[in-house]
């Protein structure tokens, strides 16, 4: 980057909507510029024009190079490039919006299956995360300056390398390798970095990778939405079953959910009957036992 004189035109490009080499350097500089002489000239290229393309959050600069014989870009050609920039930028904005919509749908799917996930953009920055991932963030695992990082030095380097490889589509990056992230208070977390297939459909998509976080010691229970699909539970019964199985007490739930303790007991009896269990411990065992086949672990 330091050797590429074209980067000197970024300011001009952003201000004027287009930039050419003669707009920010002289012919003498072009004749002595290592990048122009060592990289472009052997291919018969010399004159440069660049336009900014982006959706407001990110900017790209497609580089257009042509031969010395064709001469510098004319004013008419620069006007055409400005129009091209606006059209592609509009497409980028639409692509970004659709990408976020797909990412939010994926995030909801992870939430329903009780999987903690952080969604990253092509720069490896965290753009979305679900509630399950938020619960795992701590001093040992946090998002700092937009990037997922951890206290453990080895894990931090391994995680950073995996994120870089996946976001840059490096060969072999599609293979899942567990990354062990130690915690001072609690068991280690296991992280998997994977491409966001089905979400990142084009270059404009803001979401390129998933970081799936797993706490092996956490009690995993199917979400209320899943419970309703598996058993003939009402929405209230599904929410109550989920909260009881995750360690909440019926008395406390009655107070927070707005019904009496006796009403809660009636809901609980109905849950027991529909699931074929006789106690709260049996209920927990039943829900945990179906978590693994569902892929929640």
TrEMBL record:
User: Which SUPFAM superfamilies does this chain map to?
Assistant: C-terminal effector domain of the bipartite response regulators
Q: Which GO BP terms sit in this record?
A: regulation of DNA-templated transcription
Question: Record's Pfam families?
Answer: GerE
* HTH luxR-type domain span: 226-291
A molecular function (GO) held by this record is: DNA binding
Q: Name the chain's protein.
A: HTH luxR-type domain-containing protein
This protein's species is Rhizobium leguminosarum bv. trifolii
